Amino acid sequence: STTLCSSDCLACFLFWFYNFANQETCSLLFGIHPRKTSRILVLARAVLLAALLDHPDSRVTFPSSDERAVLADIASEKYRGLTGDEQVWGFIDGCKLNVVRSGDQDIQNAHHSGWLKRQVVNNVILFDVTGRIRWYNVNLLGNTHDSAATLPLYSHLRTCNPVEKILADKAFADVSGMLPLNKTRLEATDNGPALVSLRQSI
Q1: Among the residues of the chain, which ranges form H helices?
Q2: How far is it, in rounded angstroms, from Cα 39 to Cα 35?
Q3: pLDDT at 194
Q4: What three-state secondary structure class fits 79?
Q5: Residue 1: its pLDDT value, please?
Q6: 127-161 pLDDT, tens per residue?
Q7: Whole-prediction pTM value?
Q8: How distant is the alpha carbon of residue 163 from its chain centre?
Q9: Beta strands 118-128 and 88-98: pairing type?
Q10: Tell me: the pLDDT tens digits for 4-60?
Q11: Which residue in 138, 110, 141 sits closest to 124, CA to CA?
Q12: Which of 171, 154, 185 has its CA nearest to residue 115?
């Protein structure tokens, strides 16, 4: 049986995590005994979480006005014309993840998504234009609407009243600091293709 160095243990965990790989695959690829694979994955996960908790770059923080201006400049450099009311620094969307169906009917109802017709948890995540997470609300009941999950963010945006906007789909409210895309808005602007492309690229 081979002993892995710390970097190989981390690589094994990341491969398993990002590829939804089974432990047998990890054992074969990294040359470790199947009975050791589980322990390596548990240890590597604990070490990675501890390192990220203490690292300033891994913290989720809402950007300052100066940071938002820089992020909007990055977006406008790639997509010319995104200025004025269409300055965009980030993008928000919901992400629904499947969960095991509960035997309790009340829990089933709470996690049932009428749109997807299955049991889920809802997560709403705000990314900046570089792909960094800037705000989140996760592990919500499956019947929670994206816009309802974003109420704390709406409140914050009303307080800071930013010039630069957060790009969103039509599920989100048209409040200060938000730029929800709908058919009417896309038809009314010359930057429709740029906005759609930016939304899809993040």
Answers
A1: 6-19, 23-30, 34-54, 65-78, 105-111, 146-149, 151-160, 183-188, 192-201
A2: 8
A3: 75
A4: coil
A5: 42
A6: 999 989 999 999 999 888 999 999 999 999 999 98
A7: 0.75
A8: 23
A9: antiparallel
A10: 888 899 999 999 988 888 889 999 999 888 888 999 999 999 989 888 888 888 889
A11: 138
A12: 171
User: Which are the contacts of 155, defined by CB distance < 8 A and separation ≥ 6?
Assistant: none
Report the half-sphere exposure of 51 (CA within 13 A, side-chain side).
8
Beta-bridged to residue 96, according to DSSP, are 122
Distance CA 116, CA 112 (A): 8
Q: Which of 14, 3, 1 is nearest to 44 (CA)?
A: 14
Pull the structure tokens for residue 54. Answer: 């203490």
Amino acid identity, residue 93?
Answer: D
- SS3 at position 21: coil
- Residue 153's pLDDT is what? 96
What's the rounded Cα separation, in Å, for the pair 5 and 65? 43
Strand-pairing partners, residue 167, are: 91, 179
Distance, in Å, from the CA atom of 158 to the CA atom of 188, rounded to the nearest integer, reads 25
Nearest Cα residue to 77 out of 89, 85, 63, 60 = 89
